Amino acid sequence: MVILGYSFLLKKITLNNNNIKIENIDILYGLTLIIFISLFFNFFFPLIHLKPIVVIFGLLLFMYAAYKKFFELNFILYFVIVFFTTFIAFYSNMNVDGPMYHLQVIKWLSFHKISFGLTNLEIRLGFNSSWHSIVALLDFNIYKISTKYYISALILSSLIYETIRHKSKLNYSDIFLYLTISFLIFFSFLHPYNNGIILNHLGNPERDIVGMLFFFLIIFFFLKALENLKNNKNYINLLIISLFLCITSRLMMSPMIILLVVILLKNKTYKAINFTTIFLFITSILWVLRSFFLSGCLFFPFYQTCFKTNWATNIKEIQFFVEEAMRISRTLPTRNGVNDLDFSLNSYKWIPQWINDYFFSTALLQIAASIIIITALFFLIASFFNKYKSTNTNKITDFYVLICLIGIILLWFISAPEVRYGLGPLISLPCFAIILLLKKLNLIESFLNKNTKLSLIMSVIFLLLISKNFALFQFDDLFKKSKIVHTYTHIEKIGKFNNTNYFWGKFLCADFREICVNTVKEKYLIDEIYNYKIYKSSSQLKE
After folding, report:
1. Which residues pair with 533 in a beta bridge?
2. Helix, strand or coil for residue 71?
């Protein structure tokens, strides 16, 4: 409700219209405004002081918009989906990155105003995801249940609602979103390990799932804008916002900006300089500044964007961190040869091992590859026999989407080919290939007129996943205040530097309130200017 309240405010200001309607997918406006508030105010004080004001004001905005009937939402269906998606998130498992550094990132946002050189304490604190800015501002406890573990479930709920809700007419964009969400949920249902390798992390404050969902929305809004060339200002706005949310969560997805350029070239009436673009530009500047203050780099961990400042992390340390991640990803799951630089870093010798050990043990990659190969074969057969004279020919815009998807997957493959880093394009490519095949075989029209049937199928798939989680349900869960409980008995005190205690968390700092690091150094250099903490580089590691 808080997000919907801010969505109403920003959309009203953006479109400057008293007769606006807030639809489900307009929550992107609210997310953007919350990011701006989080980034801006964290330069001056901890977000913990701002949370009550943000939540109360958001609820007041929601109640006003609901009273004035600005919402075009089936709230009963919406909250049923949110409830069951949160139910699924409740039974997910804590991933590795959560207690390692995600929770620490949120802690620093919540309880400290921005600090310079946090990467000199723990290099992973340099990751500056806009999603964590949202989570930190909307995180509060209700009977010891922390909302930070369930906010990503709201975004998934929104996309599920978008596929299930009644529409007067379906378009290619709707079919694409339906395919991607169906793929995600059905894969999670079939996976033998709880909710599968993706949704098992839903109840975490991580950025991979939301990055994937925002990636789906980029293509969705790109297609929507093409389908409504005469009246697509809102869709272009949402496309720009989706790009911002996705890229600031996963920088590797930057090539998707090509789709925005294509839309702007095709739509001459859209004014590139408007309130939305100016607002996002200012928010982007704040985001880049935050990254610079945290690490000395404009776009951490790309060391080519780093500058020499008195708080900057040693470039060699950043380079080693990036290369280590590449070596590990290339040698999964066994990590055979991970320390052989000639094998895992400076050549392509790792590829045969990756295919044999990782590709053939990862169901998602095999399913995606099988769909692409089968659709490509059918496409070639149809083209060879020239039997199908489609009225829905594949356009040059389809080619741009394919180029972006294939390009990002190639970039993913040669850098860090671990599934979680490329979920968006890895799921989108086979789904988009199916759409191209349906258009080629002139079957797409058969789906465009069957909204009710597709919604029913989607509902059944979602219910199957819910039923899988009911198997984990126990009556005592109704009285649990929290399923996730962190203990700190393993944390050891390193020492005191500049009257500040430092602790070693052994890669399980979680949300430990005091300064907690994963790797111990001989000494820690701290300075203070105008009441801002500056953590300086001291790259000597303790033996």
Report:
1. 528
2. strand
| Tokens encoding 484 | 């996730």
Residue 269 CA to residue 531 CA, distance in Å, equals: 48
Tell me the three state secondary structure of residue 308: coil
**What are the DSSP calls for 4-26, one per residue?**
HHHHHHHHHHHHT-TT--B-GGG
pTM exceeds 0.90: yes
Pairing of strands 515-517, 500-504: parallel
Per-residue pLDDT reduced to its tens digit, 384-415: 776 555 555 557 888 999 999 999 999 999 99
Q: Which residue has the tokens 């009556």?
A: 475
Distance (Å, rounded) from C-alpha 252 to C-alpha 325?
14
Residues 170, 448 contacting (CB under 8 angstroms): yes
- My answer on whether 115 and 13 are in the same domain is yes
Q: Are 417 and 359 in contact (CB under 8 A)?
A: no
Instruction: Report which DSSP code applies to 347.
Output: S
Query: 431, 461, 491: which is the final residue of a domain?
Result: 461
Question: Does one domain contain both 9 and 139?
Answer: yes
Q: Domain residues for 429? A: 329-461
* Amino acid type, 123: I
Asked whether residue 360 falls in the same domain as residue 300, the answer is: no
521 three-class SS: strand
